[in-house]
Design goal:
445 residues, alpha/beta, Aspartate Aminotransferase, domain 1, Aspartate Aminotransferase, domain 2, 15 helices, 14 strands, globular, transaminase activity, pyridoxal phosphate binding, Aminotrans_3, Glutamate-1-semialdehyde 2,1-aminomutase HemL, isomerase
Length: 445
């Protein structure tokens, strides 16, 4: 951390504002290594502890009300304690939460998803995005009889061994055997020439290409025009399956990015918002591929089990959340994202800064880089100290945000709160400006 007066002032203010979080961190670290059981939750000087949430806000043990623009890293779309989701869970859980059998709840949510997503004829339920992408890759390998998988640099597909090793900044991949990644290939996102070349050269051994339609954790980097269509065409021509990982991107359209961009993959993973705030992963695809799991007409179906697969309480929460996440609601929340982007770009310009803000729908990511971020390598050049200080500065201003500059909106946030958020962002940029003028002059216009 810099010793610059701007940095010292922001950190000192955080220490002063969140003493109860410090106490809880010191207590928790005795039993949970690092004091946070999710790596993303930890930051210095200590992570914030939330007491409870309601609607678009969370409340700390110090008694502060914070506007929530993390929304559980995208898992919440209707904010905290949505009454329809709560009512569905309460009514359902009184009848039992899990039976280890097929249920009406599984039918309702599966039908809703298949009705909406162009690439879904049939689905299987899992418990996380990591499980969903792991089984998507296993499915592709089982169908094709081939082992290799091609991914995009900066694409995040969970934490199972095959996909966890990547060039993403600051991700520690110790403990992953070399053999687990021997069949993984990687090309830059937004490089259709490299992708096409890799598919053609490896087609005899390549089971699938797995990719996010836009990089999510990699910085909300959007696909350049024609990228998805070109990869769809070359995979189809070469007998390689295409997997879209829409766990993060699904919220931007009623049928996900494949509906938005008009490119339909062979297999798709979704999750996050689909669970209504509870843990879920979904693997789906065309019937010809998903029938590899079918016990009725497949002699030896691909094995897929799990104690909590299709957990009835999750099915109830997910159906309630998705039923009210209709086209009009999506249009409304996407308009809020556009409103945020417009105000933020004006603030960036007014402060004489040359930094980037990538936005699609209700997702936005700021990058302290002085040129457009169109590849993962561009995102990696963003100035980490400024991200750290922006995060703490916004927490000091009662904005609960994600350290890497990612903002995720909920349907509960109002236009007035959006304008307040833009105002707090402007205050934070002004607070950081003396440091930028002294140390990061390349970010000035």
């Amino acid at each position: 951390m810099s010793a610059h007066p701007v940095a010292a002032k922001i950190v000192d203010k955080y220490r002063e504002t969140y003493p109860a979080s410090r106490e809880r961190h010191q207590r928790l670290v005795k039993y949970i290594p690092g004091g946070a059981t999710r790596s993303l939750s930890y930051f210095k000087p200590w992570p914030i502890h939330i007491d409870y949430g309601k609607g678009a806000h969370v409340y700390t043990h110090e008694g502060h009300e914070l506007l929530d623009v993390t929304n559980a890293y995208g898992a919440l779309v209707h904010g905290h304690g949505d009454p329809d989701v709560v009512a569905a869970v309460q009514a359902g859980i009184e009848r039992g939460s899990q039976y280890s059998t097929p249920t009406d709840g599984q039918y309702r949510l599966a039908k809703l998803l298949c009705d909406r997503v162009p690439g879904f004829d049939k689905v299987r339920f899992l418990n996380s995005g990591t499980e969903a992408t792991m089984f998507a890759m296993r499915t592709a390998r089982a169908i094709t009889g081939k082992d290799k998988i091609l991914k995009m640099t900066g694409g995040f597909h969970g934490t199972h061994d095959c996909v966890a090793a990547s060039t993403k900044k600051n991700v520690i991949t110790a403990g992953i055997p070399a053999g687990m990644t021997a069949d993984m290939l990687e090309v830059p996102f937004n490089d259709p020439v490299a992708a096409e070349k890799a598919v053609k050269e490896n087609a005899p051994h390549l089971a699938a290409v797995i990719m996010e339609p836009f990089l999510g954790a990699g910085g909300v980097v959007l696909p350049e025009e024609g990228l998805l269509k070109r990869i769809r065409e070359v995979t189809r021509a070469q007998g390689v399956l295409l997997i879209f990982d829409e766990i993060f991107s699904f919220r931007v359209d009623i049928g996900g990015c494949q509906n938005l961009y008009g490119v339909v993959p062979d297999l798709t993973t979704v999750g996050k918002v689909v669970g209504g705030g509870l843990p879920i992963g979904v693997l789906g695809g065309k019937a010809e591929f998903m029938n590899i799991y079918c016990h009725e007409n497949t002699e030896k179906p691909l094995y897929h089990s799990g104690t909590f697969n299709g957990y009835e309480t999750v099915m109830q929460a997910g159906f309630a959340a998705m039923t009210k996440y209709d086209e009009q609601t999506i249009a409304d929340i996407n308009a809020k994202g556009a409103r945020f982007q417009k105000g933020l770009l004006a603030s960036i310009a007014d402060n004489g800064l040359n930094i980037q803000s990538n936005q699609i729908g209700s997702l936005l990511n700021i990058h302290f880089v002085n040129r457009p971020t169109i590849k993962a390598a561009d995102v990696l050049e963003s100035e980490e100290e400024l991200h750290t200080l922006m995060h703490l500065s916004l927490l000091n201003k009662r904005i609960f945000n994600i350290p890497r500059g990612l903002f995720i909106l909920s349907t509960k946030i109002t236009d007035d709160e959006m304008d307040m958020l833009v105002g707090k962002m402007d205050e934070t940029l002004k607070e950081l400006l003396p440091l930028i003028q002294e140390k990061y002059t390349h970010l000035l216009l």
